[in-house]
Design a protein that fits this description.
transmembrane, membrane, mainly alpha, elongated, 62% helix, 9 helices
């Protein structure tokens, strides 16, 4: 009787990088990813506070990092790079999610996919030095109806909300889903889930 690779327990050394990041290192990867997302989101919140609470003019409202590094807020490449990294991380980390958590994670992924398209349009205009719709600055599709500051705060919020719901269901899996998790992210011990 032959055994398959699936029936033989493998050590961490025998796992692929993708299996490691969605298995034994999933919790650490999610911590790092969440910290990056929160830092980025807090920059958008700081910019909104500078505009709407402190009354700063939009060109002077650059978040926290933008106060020391003004080029950061104006760099389409940096914004596109962040959108792309976020999209890739959503895709790479998806295999660690099952059931309800995976559904919400993929909702966040598809919203981020559109957000990435909007940033790709902005980056493309910056590269070719020709703006859409005769705009004096690079402009995205939804930016035609929603100002840029508000639009990107909105995008980061609507990506973050299903991401948080996904993580909630991931940390507190439904009874039928708990046994299918391949990581240690759930807040109760594996023996209690089995």
């Amino acid at each position: 009787m032959s055994t398959t690779a699936c029936s033989i327990p493998r050590t961490t050394d025998q796992l692929s990088w993708m299996d490691k990041i969605n298995g034994p290192f999933h919790k650490q990867a999610l911590y790092i990813y969440t910290a990056i997302v929160l830092a980025h989101w807090s920059e958008h919140l700081a910019q909104a506070i500078q505009i709407y609470v402190l009354g700063w003019p939009i060109p002077e409202s650059r978040g926290v990092l933008g106060l020391w590094f003004p080029w950061v807020i104006k760099s389409e490449a940096l914004h596109y790079g962040y959108a792309l990294v976020m999209l890739i991380a959503f895709w790479v980390l998806r295999k660690g999610f099952v059931g309800q958590s995976r559904t919400w994670w993929m909702i966040a992924f598809w919203i981020q996919f559109w957000h990435h398209i909007e940033h790709a349009l902005l980056q493309g205009q910056a590269i070719v030095q020709h703006n859409l719709f005769g705009s004096p600055v690079p402009v995205s599709i939804l930016q035609l109806v929603i100002p840029r500051v508000e639009l990107h705060l909105f995008y980061n919020t609507v990506v973050f909300v299903p991401m948080v719901i996904a993580m909630f269901y991931h940390m507190f899996p439904l009874p039928g889903e708990a046994a299918h998790q391949g990581c240690s992210c759930a807040w109760q011990p594996r023996s209690a889930r089995a």
